[in-house]
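Fill in residues.
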């Protein structure tokens, strides 16, 4: 979860998010090298007093500054395309979770183990306790097993929403009349927070998402008692 004065990305809670962070660092280093080179050349030109009346063309340097950016773009495009294909891949999911966006709350359905449906509302400020986070915690959390491929199916009942968990690297639009699908796997146990990232009305800021990641054995024991999944 993002904290005060946190200037970097959140710690990745899924393999995809970890790869996204690596790609961000990779691209940032390339940008840093480009900025350093350009600033050095600009500074050199500003302080250089040498001129030449006879230099009218320079095919070599023109060829160089045409080919060099193309090579740099290839170094950025290759890992980017790899990540795009990885994010679209569905890896034989062990379970499916359906999320339906409403104004202004989420409802969820577990359809693999038991036919379990529940609504998830933000905890009001007057009921907020010291152990919860303002505008981020919900009355009913999603409980999911860690280290298991999970398929998420997202739709909406009224207007456009967006189901977003930054630490998982997941952002999926919830569109009325359409099912969008995404898969992810959680690396470690804990509580993950997210919010709707599509402006969907007056209370758009008040429909958070809370996931509780547990071990697979613990989740199976909970699935034998469906009511215990709603935490």
């Amino acid at each position: 979860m993002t904290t005060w004065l946190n200037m970097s990305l959140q710690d990745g809670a899924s393999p995809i998010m970890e790869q996204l962070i690596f790609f961000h660092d990779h691209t940032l280093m390339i940008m840093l090298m480009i900025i350093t080179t350009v600033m050095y050349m600009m500074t050199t030109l500003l302080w250089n007093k040498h001129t030449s009346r006879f230099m009218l063309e320079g095919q070599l340097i023109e060829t160089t500054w045409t080919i060099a950016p193309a090579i740099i773009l290839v170094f950025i495009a290759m890992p980017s395309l790899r990540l795009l294909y990885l994010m679209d891949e569905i890896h034989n999911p062990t379970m499916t979770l359906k999320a339906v966006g409403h104004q202004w709350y989420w409802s969820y359905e577990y359809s693999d183990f038991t036919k379990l449906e529940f609504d998830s509302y933000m905890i009001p400020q007057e009921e907020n306790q010291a152990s919860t986070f303002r505008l981020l915690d919900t009355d009913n959390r999603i409980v999911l097993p860690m280290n298991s491929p999970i398929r998420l199916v997202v739709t909406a009942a009224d207007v456009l929403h967006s189901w977003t968990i930054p630490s998982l690297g997941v952002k999926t639009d919830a569109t009325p009349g359409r099912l969008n699908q995404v898969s992810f796997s959680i690396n470690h146990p804990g509580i993950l927070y997210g919010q709707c990232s599509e402006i969907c009305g007056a209370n758009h800021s008040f429909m958070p998402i809370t996931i509780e990641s547990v071990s697979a054995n613990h989740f199976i024991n909970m699935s034998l008692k469906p009511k215990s999944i709603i935490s």
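The radius of gyration is 24 Å.
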